[in-house]
Amino acid sequence: AAFAAYGFAWVRFPGRRLIFSIVVALMVVPLQVSLVPVLSDYVRLGLNGTYLAVWLAHAGFGLPLAIYLLYNFIASLPRELLEAATVDGASHLKIFRSIILPLAGPALASYAIFQFLWVWNDYLVSLIFIGSQPNVQVLTMRLAEIVGSRGNDWHLLTAGAFISMILPLAVFFSLQRYFVRGLTAGAVKS
Fold it and tell me: Is residue 190 part of a domain?
């Protein structure tokens, strides 16, 4: 997503605005709308019932938002910085790796937090693509199973909910210093 955002922001090629408009338009297509076609493709490819199916679905449907957010940040970088690197003989790959990625750290961390929380709390996609196989169920599916089979054991549900909050809180607190910088990075133009 960062590489595509860099391409849309700084590399001039024919059809760039049209392709970027299509990517932005893809943000309105939710993953839930395409569960049946994607599931039929996964069954045909033998990916159904694996974590890879969930990862690919979330990555594919998360890319338009990631490209759009990172585009806003990367486009706000000073043109002089990139021109100086070009004058020094740096290629687009070298500019991206040496300049853009280090500067985009806060924006990447902010999007990583959003994407992680979106995937961590997702129940429907995991249920559809993984199914009821107990050896590959995710935590939200296990919690729903406890509700269904032991609805009266509120102490188990409370403990499970607390355990399910530990990892998202750890991710947020470890990346929080980047989070505020990343949210405001592309908002104000110098």
Answer: no
